[in-house]
């Protein structure tokens, strides 16, 4: 069986980096789509003998426009983004259990991470076998920032003397929508994520005018 790439993606709390973990694992009886490490199997790709000749991470927006492409065969980028701070890409030091790409957002987008759906393509080939994996990333860094900023203002508006807590009630609604946004991202419901994201963005725009 050919290499079947798999990844997981995490946004750091400060939204300053994307942490992309290669979860493909090593080839074995129970993981026949894994990376080869110490054997030769037809149609599979070795991770640690420099046989990989092309590899990249490519980021696109929801309209399909390529935003940035990272050449993983560039040794300087490989050493900057992976735990392997010396040597060549996919050389003998590369281990499928520790292959993680930690990439500053500014290196990808040149600015803050935009909210929405970003598509990431992970491509690897040794010249005879190709492994190609596409993954959608739900981004909500700006909405998260605005949500916590809103919650922090509750003490300013909570006035039990008047019992007029319209602001607090509104924040509770926003909190429910924010939880729904996170859940839709977690289960990969793109349509619900984009709908809820737009609802929150509209609310935040109104709130900034009203408060």
Q: In words, what does this structure look like?
A:
This protein is α+β, with helices and mostly antiparallel strands and 211 residues long. The chain folds into 2 domains: 7-139, Immunoglobulins (Immunoglobulin-like); 142-210, no CATH class. It is 34% helix and 23% strand. It has 6 helices and 7 strands; from the N terminus they run ββββαβαββαααα. The chain has helices at 75-81, 105-109, 141-152, 154-157, 166-187, 190-210, and strands at residues 7-11, 17-22, 54-60, 66-71, 100-104, 116-125, 130-139. Strands 4-3-6-7 form a 4-stranded antiparallel β-sheet. β1 and β2 (17-22) form a beta hairpin. α3 packs antiparallel against α5 (166-187) and α5 packs antiparallel against α6. The radius of gyration is 22 Å and the shape is elongated.
CATH level 1 name of the largest domain: Mainly Beta
Number of domains: 2
Low-pLDDT parts are: none
How much strand content do the residues show?
15-25%
The biggest beta sheet is recorded as: 4 strands, antiparallel
Shape: elongated
CATH topology of the largest domain: Immunoglobulin-like
Strand element count: 7
Spatial strand arrangement across the major sheet: 4-3-6-7
Q: CATH superfamily of the largest domain, please?
A: Immunoglobulins
